[in-house]
Amino acid sequence: MMKKIFISTFLLPTFTLASSGSIDRSVLVNGQCVKNLDPDRSSLRLTVETIEPTVTASTQKAQKQYEILRKEIKSLNLKEVEIETQEYSVNEDISWDKNKKKVNGFKTRMGIFVSTSEIQKIGEVMVKASNLGIQEVYGLSTYVSSAVIKQEKENCLAEAVQNARKKAERMAEAGKTKVGAVIELTEIDSPNSQNPIMPRMMMAKSVTAETTGAAPQIETQKVEISLNVQARFKLTD
After folding, report:
1. Residue 41, exposed/middle/buried by CB under 10 A (0-12, 13-18, 19+)?
2. Alpha-carbon distance 31 to 74, whole Å?
3. Longest dimension (CA), the chain
4. End-to-end Cα spacing for the chain
5. What is the pLDDT of residue 202?
6. Residue 20 to residue 68: CA distance in whole angstroms
7. Do the Cβ atoms of 141 and 76 come closer than 8 Å?
8. SS3 of residue 167 by DSSP
9. Which of 43, 45, 49, 93 could potentially form a cystine with 107 if both were Cys, beta carbons 3.0 to 4.6 Å apart?
10. What is the DSSP secondary structure assignment for residue 214, as one 8-state letter?
11. What pLDDT does residue 97 have?
12. Which CATH superfamily does the domain covering 41-145+202-224 fall into?
């Protein structure tokens, strides 16, 4: 199902009373531009986890595995790559046996977030993780970057204004009048609320890459964005 980003506005024909007492006839409408965009980025989360008898042994092992994983990811030379540490925790690993607490050791977790503009190559990160025995590979997603959305919305402005004029003209025709010059224009926008779009491969784990021996094919869906403007046009005879 295609992801949609909507920015709501109103469609209101209005008549404004001028200060001179005469009626300044105008119509207020909203215009919309809709675009279907292909995702331009993909991302993935991976977590190293170790359990050892002591805190020192656990953290050192996790840090070593994390650094190896980080270097392996960097060796792929992904385009426009972003790598970020997103988790670091050390806790007792416990279990219960007949209401008795048992300390198994100390668990260390280190998470890494990877995103790139090379959508298909994110699958190679999965393979690297599998080869290193990383068990937690999750959050695979594709999405349209904020920069692309911003540019596309700017490109949409003229189309949205034209859409508003066409609506005004249809309304004016029904009212047996005509649309004149634009009096007022307002772009109606809101912070980008897009969530990353999950492709069909989103549930793939490292075991997939381990079984096939190759990077999985990443499938994506288009993302629908919309931009709205509010326009007031003068009505003429």
Report:
1. buried
2. 46
3. 89
4. 47
5. 43
6. 77
7. no
8. helix
9. 93
10. S
11. 86
12. Protein of unknown function (DUF541), domain 2 (3.30.70.2970)
Residue type, 169: E
Is 12 exposed, middle or buried, given 0-12, 13-18 or 19+ CB atoms closer than 10 A? exposed
Q: Mean pLDDT in runs of 10 for the chain (237 residues)?
A: 45 40 77 94 96 96 97 96 95 89 93 96 94 93 94 93 96 93 87 45 41 76 93 92
Which tokens sit at 22?
Answer: 């005469």
Q: Token pair of 150, please? A: 């911003």
Read off the tokens for 38: 């292909």
Radius of gyration of the chain (CA): 28
Q: Return the closest-CA partner of residue 181 out of 235, 125, 134.
A: 235
144's tokens: 């349209």
pLDDT (0 to 100) of residue 205: 42
Q: How far apart are CA 131 and CA 212, in angstroms?
A: 12
Q: What is the pLDDT of residue 196?
A: 44
- Cα distance between residue 125 and residue 201, in whole Å: 14
CA angle 8, 12, 16 (to 5 degrees): 135
The pair of three-digit structure tokens given for residue 89, joined into one six-digit string: 């925790």
Model's pTM, two decimal places?
A: 0.73
